[in-house]
Specification:
Number of helices: 8
CATH class of the largest domain: Alpha Beta
Strand content: 25-35%
Structural class: alpha+beta
Distance between the termini: 14 Å
Radius of gyration: 33 Å
CATH architecture of the largest domain: Roll
Length: 355
């Protein structure tokens, strides 16, 4: 046997003895479970859900608002089409002037700014009836051209900015124009506007809050709107509105994961999903044991154990996370010993002949 070959064989035999020694050292610690396959089920599900949700937001641009913009407020520069049933000679297309007025036959100037088309219809009908120009007026008002409107979209969107839009837009349309949501966006959207806007009625009871004096804020649940198809929450957005998407609060994933750091806590995120968002387990070090560490209302430290292997097989309930939770993935003692031996002796597992 050549000298080089004898040296490699002896080196390999020594490496085997080291491995056997490591097995004896950690053997008394009990059975170490095998790691879950990579990528984990939770990791795949998290990526699919994130992609699907963003797609649904973007697709919402093409869907009209269920209210058909009945609550749109007429303003200067709008072009209105006014039709009188049975009186074609009174038909007019009139543009709202800078004072918010239109001029109609017989009646003259009428203040319409700030009214919905339906309210304009009622005001005109009342005037024609009161002045006895028409006995039973039936009037239809249609907004033929909308004025330019300025809407701000801020927060956790890809292109926050002021947007010049023509005519009414829906909430999903504005989110789409802003490039959709960032990964760390929260599950709600705030619509901030001046009080007494008709569209507020479309929001669910208790959804209207006042965060800033002189304004009201409608809180819209994005999960209900996008995933559950609650079309009544796709509210009309008009000039002066601010659409704000808050950033989600964070939890922290530490220990034997590929990308330790913070993850956004949203959409009922669980411990296993947070591990997946942190790049999954480190196969050379991680065990299946993790701990969720949090502090209760009294400031006491609470530690909740999680067996990731059992969670992926639905034999154990996963733990929903709260903001500021810490998910710590424990190392396997056996894998740590092997990792350290391999680091100190990189070539110890080579049993073949040297080239």
């Amino acid at each position: 046997m050549a000298k080089n070959e004898r040296f490699q064989a002896v080196r390999g035999f020594g490496g085997c003895r080291l491995v056997l020694l490591a097995l004896l050292v950690v053997g008394c610690g009990g059975r170490v479970p095998l790691l879950a396959p990579q990528p984990t089920v939770a990791q795949v599900e998290a990526e699919v859900q994130k992609s699907r949700f963003q797609d649904q937001v973007m697709q919402g641009m093409a869907k009209p608002a269920p209210t058909a913009f009945r609550d749109y407020q007429v303003g200067p520069e709008d072009l209105l089409e006014v039709t009188f049933f049975g009186h074609n000679e009174l038909y007019r297309e009139v543009r709202v002037n800078g004072q918010g007025e239109i001029s109609v036959p017989l009646v003259g100037n009428v203040q319409v700014a700030g009214l919905s088309p339906q309210q304009v219809e009622k005001r005109l009908a009342d005037l024609y009836k009161e002045r006895r120009f028409l006995k039973n007026p039936q009037i239809t008002v249609f907004v033929k051209e909308y004025r330019h409107q300025r809407v701000a979209v801020t927060g956790a969107v890809n292109r926050p900015d002021y947007y010049e839009v023509i005519g009414p837009r829906t909430l999903l349309e504005m989110l789409g124009m802003a490039g959709g949501l960032k990964e760390n966006a929260a599950d709600v959207v705030h619509i901030i506007r001046r009080p007494s806007r008709g569209a507020t009625a479309a929001a669910k009871p208790g959804a209207v809050q006042s965060f800033t004096p002189g304004t009201e804020t409608i809180v819209v649940d994005l999960n209900r709107l996008v995933r559950q198809g609650a079309a009544d929450l796709n509210l009309p957005i008009s000039s002066g509105d601010v659409v704000h998407v808050p950033f989600a609060q964070n939890a922290y994933v530490l220990g034997a994961v590929n990308k330790p750091g913070n993850v956004a806590v949203k959409d009922k995120m669980t411990a296993a999903q947070a591990v997946a968002m942190a790049g999954g387990l480190k196969p050379e070090l991680a065990s299946n044991r993790a701990s969720v560490i949090r502090f209760d209302d009294s400031g006491q430290r609470v530690v909740l154990p999680v067996n990731l292997w059992r969670v992926t097989r639905a034999s154990e309930e996963d733990i929903p996370l709260k903001p500021n939770d810490i998910v710590f993935v424990h190392e396997s003692p056996f894998r740590r010993v092997l990792f350290d031996i391999k680091s100190l002796n990189p070539g110890m597992f080579s049993m073949g002949l040297a080239p």
